[in-house]
Structure formats: C-alpha cells, structure tokens
Specification:
single chain; Double-stranded beta-helix; seven-stranded mixed β-sheet; three-stranded antiparallel β-sheet; globular
Length: about 325
C-alpha cells in the first residue's frame, strides 16, 4: 500500500483515522509512526482491515504481553469448526456481562494488572445500534477547575466487576466461578488513584469508570457522588466523546490508560461478532497489588460491605439483584 495517512477525527479533540496501511504486514517504520500517533491521539480507527483472530493477536503482541488475543466476542458460542451456536439468552451470564459493558469503563482495572491498550475488529454487526463510544479522560482532567484537581489529587477508589455489575444492572455473578467468569468476578477489589500519570507521555488524566467505588476516607454517599460527577464531566463535552459506527472490517485501537469506552445497545436477538485483543499493562506502572498482598484485604472488606448494601438497593435494576443460572 502507499503512504499511510493519519487524520484527526472531525470535531473531536482526540482520536485519528489511519488509512493506507495493512496492520497484518506493517513494517517497523510504519509501526513506529502508528505508535507515535497512538500516544498523541489515544484512539486510532483503521477502516477496512478485515483482521482474523490470529492477525488481531499478532498485532497486539507488537505492543506488549497479551491479556488475551484474538478472542471471539460474540453473543453466540464459537465452535472449533468456526460455526456458531444460537444467540445466547439475555438472562445468561455472558449476555449480562455484555450488557454491563454498556456503561463507561476502562478495561481490567478490576484485576491486579490493569490493561495498557486494547482493540476491537468487526466481523458481523447489526443494522442498528451496537456502536462503541470512547471518551478522553486526559482532556477531562486538563479541563477540571483547580479546586477539584486539588480535592482529588490524593484520592483513590477500589475497582471491582462484582461491584459494577451489581450497581449498574442488578447482576450478582458468582465469585470464583468456572472459566472466564472466574477471572472477571473474583471477589477482589483493587485500589487505584483517581488521577493517573501516563507512563509514556507523563500527562495526567482522570482514571474513573463503572468499576470504581468506595473512596477511602469518604462517606459512601460522598464517594458515590464524586465518582459519578467525574464520569459525567468526562463525557459532558462532545469534543471528548467519539461514537464509532461499525462497518465489517473496521479495527479500533485505544489506550486503556486514559480512554473510557462503552458498548451501545442493539437487538440482542441478532448475531454480533467482534474480535478482541487486550494488551496487559506494564508491571512497573499498572500493577495495584496481588491477592496475597496484605493490602488486598481492605478491598475485600470494602467490596463485601458494598455488595451487602446493593443487595437491597439494586432490586429495581435490569436483573433485579439476581444471579444468572448459567
């Protein structure tokens, strides 16, 4: 292909579209140009790549060790022969997890090592809905008033998917279950600062999202109000929010260290198939602590206390404070 073109997204203060490249065959020079654009823009859109699962994983490995690579993110189970099962029921844990992802979040903050970056590639999309939205927490932090910056400078919050599922949609997954859900709903909560300094650019940004709860030192109501207000502020300026309308073949790549994202609803009875790859964060900068660390006990206690309250508060949410049968 010819020379690549990097074009800032129209009307947005972050993000760029990249054309004139094939991600599966990038030269070292092309990759370094994309890497520089990634650090500048935080979100890169690559139309017409048509990556398969192996190619998605291979591109992810150029950025670091994978958390997972080339994973089929579908509302059906993919068989070894490439065929798919029927669409999952909306009450299943898989679909409950997908619905939860419709709330603003950053990947893997609920794990000891939060994610560095991630990508999605579209294979099958629905005619309506199913967009993915992104929001820039770096620009949001820069726009905060000085009083708020001073207030949050030393604050941190625990992060847990057990919390976010319960709080947002009234889903109470089993902790330490089998398969992928055991690594997602594990009953741990990891403390992370509200203000994060990017490890490669040195630029500060907010670091909030649906998994964050229970700021130590604040009463529950104050903590919840502050976290909600910060997310609302991030997405309050349309220049900081980008909505991607998927076309089969698209790949979108983003920096999990400062970009929030969320899925948008669609007709859940229709097939939808994306390929996901997630790059693990660097140990030196993205590690909170491991479960065996003494600091982990405070997170477990904070999560247990919060879930006990949500058992009664979340009965009016989508899944009525229930646990999926499968």
């Amino acid at each position: 292909m010819g020379e690549s073109t990097i074009t800032p997204l129209e009307g947005k203060a972050f993000g760029a579209a990249v054309t004139g490249v094939e991600l599966r065959t990038l030269s070292t020079e092309q990759f370094e140009r994309i890497r520089a654009a990634f650090l500048k823009y935080g979100l890169l859109v690559f139309p017409g790549q048509n990556l398969n699962e192996q190619e998605s994983a291979d591109f992810g490995r150029r950025w670091g060790e994978l958390e997972f690579g080339g994973q089929a993110l579908a509302n059906q189970r993919k068989h070894k022969d490439g065929t798919f099962s029927d669409v999952f029921d909306i009450e299943s844990q898989l679909m409950r997890t997908n619905v939860g992802n419709e709330i603003w979040h950053t990947d893997s903050t609920y794990k000891p090592l939060s994610s560095k970056c991630a990508m999605l590639s579209a294979v099958i999309v629905t005619e309506e809905g199913g967009q993915t939205e992104f929001a820039d927490q770096r620009l949001a932090y820069a726009a905060l008033d000085e009083a708020t910056k001073e207030r949050i400078a030393t604050l941190a919050a625990y992060h847990s998917t057990n919390y976010s599922q319960a709080n947002d949609i009234g889903d109470f997954p089993q902790s330490n279950g089998e398969g992928i859900y055991g690594s997602v709903y594990h009953g741990e909560a990891y403390l992370r600062p509200l203000v994060k300094v990017h490890s490669e650019t040195g630029i500060p940004n907010l670091f909030v999202g649906r998994h964050a709860f229970s700021i130590p030192g604040l009463e529950r109501a104050e903590s919840r109000a502050l976290l909600a207000s910060l997310i609302d502020f991030v997405v309050s300026d349309e220049r900081r929010v980008y909505t991607h309308e998927w076309t089969p073949g698209d790949t979108v790549f983003w920096d999990n260290r400062f970009v929030l994202h969320r899925a948008r609803p669609y007709d859940y009875s229709k097939p939808r198939y994306m390929i996901g790859t997630r790059v693990a964060g660097d140990q030196a900068t993205e590690l909170a602590y491991y479960p065996e660390d003494p600091r982990a006990e405070a997170g477990r206690q904070a999560l247990a206390a919060e879930l006990e309250i949500l058992r009664t508060e979340a009965t009016d949410r989508r899944y009525g404070a229930t646990t999926a049968a499968r």
